[in-house]
Design brief:
4 copies of one chain form a homotetramer. In chain A, 67% of the residues lie in helices and 0% in strands. By secondary structure, chain A is mostly helical. Chain A has 2 domains: 47 residues, Arc Repressor Mutant, subunit A (Orthogonal Bundle); 135 residues, Tetracycline Repressor, domain 2, CATH 1.10.357.10. The longest helix of chain A has 27 residues. Chain A is elongated and about 60 Å long. The termini of chain A are far apart. Chains in contact: A-B, A-C, A-D, B-C, C-D. At the A-B interface, helix 8 and helix 9 of A face helix 9 and helix 10 of B. Chain B binds a DNA duplex (21 and 21 nucleotides) through helix 1 and helix 3.
Chain lengths: 219, 219, 219, 219
Amino acid sequence: MASRATGGTADAQQGAKRPSQARTPQLERGRARVASLLAAGARVFAEKGYDAATMTQIAAEAGASIGSLYQFFPTKVLLAEALHGEQRVRLAGMLDKLGGDARKLSAADLADRVFAVMAEFLMLHPAYTTLVERRDVDPQRKRESRAQMENRIADLLAQTTPPLPRGRPQVIAVVIIELMKAIVTISTYEEDAMRAAAINELRVMLKTYLRAVCNAIRV
Amino acid sequence: MASRATGGTADAQQGAKRPSQARTPQLERGRARVASLLAAGARVFAEKGYDAATMTQIAAEAGASIGSLYQFFPTKVLLAEALHGEQRVRLAGMLDKLGGDARKLSAADLADRVFAVMAEFLMLHPAYTTLVERRDVDPQRKRESRAQMENRIADLLAQTTPPLPRGRPQVIAVVIIELMKAIVTISTYEEDAMRAAAINELRVMLKTYLRAVCNAIRV
Amino acid sequence: MASRATGGTADAQQGAKRPSQARTPQLERGRARVASLLAAGARVFAEKGYDAATMTQIAAEAGASIGSLYQFFPTKVLLAEALHGEQRVRLAGMLDKLGGDARKLSAADLADRVFAVMAEFLMLHPAYTTLVERRDVDPQRKRESRAQMENRIADLLAQTTPPLPRGRPQVIAVVIIELMKAIVTISTYEEDAMRAAAINELRVMLKTYLRAVCNAIRV
Amino acid sequence: MASRATGGTADAQQGAKRPSQARTPQLERGRARVASLLAAGARVFAEKGYDAATMTQIAAEAGASIGSLYQFFPTKVLLAEALHGEQRVRLAGMLDKLGGDARKLSAADLADRVFAVMAEFLMLHPAYTTLVERRDVDPQRKRESRAQMENRIADLLAQTTPPLPRGRPQVIAVVIIELMKAIVTISTYEEDAMRAAAINELRVMLKTYLRAVCNAIRV
DNA sequence: TATGAATGAGAGTTCATTCAT
DNA sequence: CATGAATGAACTCTCATTCAT
């Protein structure tokens, strides 16, 4: 062929329309494939990290041929993005369920629930942090998707009773998200006792703090 | 990539001595080389991450040939470990300087200082987290070096006045370390205002919490 | 690794400095390698055409490993360009030798010599046309290198005695070059008699024509 | 690429009937399909060249599925051949229309008409040269189809008044065909003025030459 | 027949590591 | 010790072709 990419890179300029989207399957069979490919991707990314995960292994893990994988995800990046997107939607959904109760709760109690939700989510989708932290995404995109998650949490926090001081929900959302990452890290620790203790410590720290913040405004 | 295999010409597993230690230079010239190689490694690891950093680039960045690099660091892993080791020593040194004042301070105030020290250190050595988080180190080693750092901080915390409840210093050390990672992450955010605010928020949260913990035992 | 090209295409944005030049060898050994790689490239490109030629085959033909090939020519395109460049220089050199006699000759006679030179060159470097015609070079470059060759020939034609009419040398240069390509094509015909006859026919046609053009201006 | 291998699932060389002919459609619908597939093929081959053209793109361009394409053209080669065949028939038809006037014309004037006809044809069917020059056709076939075209033109030339010397029509046919290829190449040049000038130059050169040849025999 | 998923050999390319000079 | 060439397994990605529905 006249111009091949890449295997690797080194493409010329021609209008080769390199796809920038995962292909959507038309048939039921295709939908099943996509699902199992995403699942396999999630497993492998979680286990090895983005870089060390190989497309070959992902295909194998999905019981598909490499060609089949590329049929739907024309690029490793695209696969990662599709997976990341899907998981973000899922997490968003779980958080949105908290919306109803938000105004009946104090920030501290809401934080507890958010914590619980996120912990459950991360248990279910251990690839999430790996995907969030990928080094080769352009900062713009990265910022946007971070902002989206932050806003969702900030919105919840803004509704609590008693209310948090102006502007705080946004910052606290950042804090919560970062604490979650810490929890993921800690989850990999091997000493069971310490692991539980440390995770609880983070939870309590946050609660204590939020209570203090609320009290501060009351006076 | 999945930790590239041995490479090179016919290797075989003869008694071929694969060194497991970075070679120590004999001559003065060698010491300078090693220093610039480590510096280059630090720069490249920080910029690209462990996987994407290539030995070739590191050598080039150090103004050395690839052969020269391998003379002193017979393996990418060994280079990373040497670097990591050096940086850990450095951080330990900086923390140890806090030892003298520890017993004159409350846990909250000590935390502030620890924060400051670590922030400075991480500014100087941005490769540190990358090296700490490398996925391909065996958990044993990982746990050990983590423990070492934790103990150092726990020891400091144990000396504060008023004292923290039994057992807490160890857990809180974990918390502090994780918060530092969060700070590193946040440092890469682009919105200046939010970045500063979030970092401060973490600091204040920790202080507030430590104060509460101290008060709790007093009563 | 964080970002891999291609194997294929699909690189991100990072400053991965993908080289755009063939590396120049430093040692004698390297120079020899490069020579044999270029020779192998020439052979394979000539035999199979650019697309069908594989880097693997070229390396094998040169008695080198694939890695060795890529050490000096980081891209198939770069190899082709290096080869093309080298051959253009060679052809230019051969044509320049005609410069001395140009003003002693009529256009028709000069054309004969140019023909002879190019025929010899193309016999020696059968990959030339393949490289010239590569579809994936940007038109800008293509135009430039064509112009260069044209000018060289036009300059020669401009010096003939009697002189050609103004402006004609440039157009005639184009004609000559295209006739050469025709000759290359015809050279692959299998019927010996026809092949020789056709090639001669082209030569005579050109001469006849140039004579007519010269006469036209004389009157 | 080096004419990609068989592909597909376990093939084996059983009595598996690999068709060597494009299937002829039975239904009206089929005929329309075939037409649009051929048209798409022509477009894509012309744009990208044979190697870089993909069956997938051709199918897409025809608004058909890849399966549908293979239904009628079980092989890329077969598609190319079908297309080539069709175009040859078309060109032959256009040339045959000149037959009536051939004996009223001089070779020079006939050449002009042949030129005009071929130029029109190539404008309409830009894939033609690509298909003619395909490197992977066996020389036997190549020679045959070339000969066919040459004969057709030689036959026309043989009828001109005054007649060309014995044997010349055949050689001159070769010359004309090659000149046409040159014109195709030149047509892609970007400098409008030079393009027109060069094309005209070729035309005039041929006429001048043919006139000279005729005169030569007359004497 | 039409559709779209499935297949897998093979291509370009990378990079840790080794070796000759 | 330094240098730079050599090596090759492994990786991402492509595309002709086949097959199930």
